[in-house]
Write a structure and sequence with these properties.
Layout (H helix, E strand, L loop, with lengths): L1 E6 L3 H13 L2 E6 L2 H10 L5 E4 L1 E2 L2 E2 H10 L6 E5 L4 H9 L4 E4 L4 H12 L3 H4 L4 E2 L2 E4 L4 E4 L2 E4 L2 H12 L5 E2 H9 L9 H15 L4 E6 L3 E6 L5
Parallel strand pairs: 1-2, 1-3, 3-6, 6-7
Antiparallel strand pairs: 4-5, 8-9, 9-10, 10-11, 12-14, 13-14
Helix pairs in contact: 1-5, 7-8
Length: 228
């Protein structure tokens, strides 16, 4: 199941969009403020971004510009009531891949998001690597050489974050957000259970990468040789 970030401050519309996407197998974490969305984007490896331009703390395009300046190529669909040509051009120039004017048919919005999720792997970095590991999210696989293991959805999202932050410490809260989003209740030991499963799968495929506990900080994916 794919996970995207939705920046939309209209509560009813956000709910309808989330429901429409969920019916298509796409989970949306909803935010109504740019600053909250920015924090989430630093913690969760979202596969696409859907933003409204008019939110309480500014123009949603400012979030997109900030991401592009930081080198983040996450595909983006802009939703807006602004339909003038110059507004559409401004959105595309800011780095958006697509632009949909309100009001819109839910079926069209879902189709456009699906199109974003089908963008080429070289643009979306769909197969990130860390050491001898390669993730293949499209197939829910973690691979080392010719061996692979299937990952459950939470396992996949957590590994995506660890691999993309290869050798860096990742906080417990960020891993929970990656695995289950910000709207889903997480049991106290859920992350421990998933990390245990991931460690077993890393061993099963013969990887030298290990998920290590950085005391007081979180976890990191590092080469086993560095601890010998």
């Amino acid at each position: 199941m794919s996970r995207i970030l939705l920046l939309e401050d209209h509560e009813r519309l956000a709910r309808l969009i989330s429901e429409g996407l969920a019916a298509a197998g796409i989970v949306a974490d909803v935010f109504s403020r740019i600053d909250h969305a920015w924090v989430a984007l630093q913690q969760v490896p979202y596969q696409a971004l859907v933003i409204d331009r008019g939110v309480p703390d500014g123009d949603g395009l400012s979030l997109l510009r900030r991401l592009r300046e930081a080198g983040n190529t996450i595909p983006c669909l802009v939703l807006t009531a602004r339909t003038a040509l110059n507004d559409r051009v401004e959105g595309l120039d800011a780095g958006a891949e697509d632009y949909l004017a309100k009001p819109f048919a839910m079926e069209e919005m879902v189709a456009r998001v699906r199109a974003l999720l089908r963008r080429p792997a070289e643009v979306r970095s769909l197969e990130p690597q860390c050491g001898d590991l390669t993730l293949r999210p499209a197939d829910s696989l973690i691979c080392c050489g010719d061996k692979s293991e299937i990952l459950a959805q939470a396992e996949l999202q957590i590994m995506l974050l660890l691999v993309r932050r290869c050798n860096e410490s990742v906080r417990h809260s960020a891993l929970e957000a990656a695995g289950w989003g910000f709207s889903e209740a997480v049991t106290p030991n859920a992350l421990d259970v998933v990390l245990h499963r991931l460690r077993r799968k890393l061993q099963a495929i013969g990887s030298q990468q290990r998920i290590v506990n950085i005391r007081g900080i979180g976890y990191a994916l590092r080469n086993d040789a560095s601890f010998q």
